[in-house]
Amino acid sequence: MATRIPALLDPPIGFAHRGARAHARENTLDAFKLAHQMGATGIETDVWITADGVVVLNHDGSVWGLPTLSTRRLFGRPIRRTSRASLPAHIPTIDEYYETCGTDLPLSVDIKDDAAFDGLLAAARARGAAERLWICHHRADVLGGWRAAALEVKLVHSTRLDRLPKGPERHAADLAAAGIDAVNFHREDWNGGLTTLYHRFELHALGWDAQQVRHIAELVDAGIDAVYSDHVDRMVEVLARPAGDAAT
């Protein structure tokens, strides 16, 4: 039986990655609603801004039904150069998300286009949901620049352990000094020593791409504060286990 390292959040948040991605079409209102129904305690999505200034939820920056990510990037039409009315019907706006799914669950948003930040923040504030908004970005300097404008939201640096030239302790100190709230590593990067280090700087430890039961359980036992998974059923089951229960 594993020993669970204390987390800053107990229980950890279970973010449904792109909605219930393993169970429904990702980043759609149906996927988000299903994730709620299946017991996810958080929702994850990605945002872009259209040519007419509407914040929309989609993982890829280009659309038009092409079969693969590579062909969409080469031949698809960029969202930022497309009006909201011209986008495929399955792509929702941030306002439609809040209208359909409400504001009770934390919402983790990967900002793919920095120009979407203001509209995202305004939409969350209009519904009293900014304190439950976790804004993720791959550049810590960009997050630091947003801190003063968004004191109530959680700012999350999404990166990998091998992308820290000065090492994790310096990284943790720099994030804390910049007022950033959390770090989001791939599940393979995390261990109990690393969560303890970031917790020492009062930073939340988030882990993404946790798809198998044992991967989710290992993160929880290592003291993770939130986990991202496509498989909401597995995630909900593991997060409901008593402290110290090992993966099977």
Q: Estimate the helix proportion, in percent.
A: 25-40%
The arrangement of helices and strands along the chain is: EHEEEHEHEHEHEHEHEHEH
Task: Briefly note the structural class of the backbone.
Answer: alpha/beta
How many whole angstroms does the radius of gyration measure?
18 Å
Number of helices: 9
Model description:
By secondary structure, this protein is an alpha/beta fold. The strands form 2 sheets. It has an 8-stranded parallel beta barrel, surrounded by 6 helices. The termini are close together. The model has no long low-confidence stretch (mean pLDDT 93).
Précis, in short:
This protein is of the alpha/beta class. The chain contains nine helices and eleven strands.
Give structural attributes.
single chain, 248 residues, alpha/beta, eight-stranded parallel β-barrel, two-stranded antiparallel ribbon, 9 helices, 19% strand
Chain-wise SSE layout:
Layout: E1 13-16, H1 29-38, E2 42-49, E3 55-57, E4 62-63, H2 69-75, E5 77-78, H3 94-101, E6 107-111, H4 117-126, E7 133-137, H5 140-146, E8 154-158, H6 167-177, E9 182-186, H7 192-200, E10 204-208, H8 213-221, E11 226-229, H9 232-239
Parallel strand pairs: 1-2, 1-11, 2-6, 6-7, 7-8, 8-9, 9-10, 10-11
Antiparallel strand pairs: 2-3, 4-5
Helix pairs in contact: 1-3, 8-9
